Structures are given as C-alpha cells and as structure tokens.
C-alpha cells in the first residue's frame, strides 16, 4: 500500500515539476558566473543573483 501511495504522490509532483513550463513550479538559482566554465579558484566568489523557490522569487540582488 505504501508504494502505491508513493507512486501517486510522485505522479502528482511530475505534473507540477520537472521542466520550466508555464504553470509548473520551479526552484532554481541564477549565478553571477558560469561555474562550469569558471576557474576552480573563482567558484567560491560566485554570487546568487536570483533565487526562485516554488515559482516565487525569494532572493534578488
């Protein structure tokens, strides 16, 4: 029974999350630099410019 409930909750969440699409919730951060291309020593100085949780902006620099 527990796994059936877990599958149902997961199914409902997939309808709300999983891609950046109008009407879906989004958690993401906009950083001051591309940390995948930055020099390793520069990464600690990276700043969160904007933080979005559940589709709401919770921090904006």
TrEMBL record:
Organism: Streptomyces nigrescens
Domain (Amidohydrolase): residue spans on this chain: 15-59
A Pfam family the protein falls into: Amidohydro_3
UniProt protein name: Amidohydrolase 3 domain-containing protein
């Amino acid at each position: 029974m527990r796994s059936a409930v877990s599958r149902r909750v997961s199914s409902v969440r997939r309808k709300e999350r999983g891609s950046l699409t109008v009407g879906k919730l989004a958690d993401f951060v906009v950083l001051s630099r591309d940390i995948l291309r930055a020099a390793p020593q520069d990464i600690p100085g990276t700043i969160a410019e904007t933080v979005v949780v559940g589709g709401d902006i919770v921090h904006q620099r």
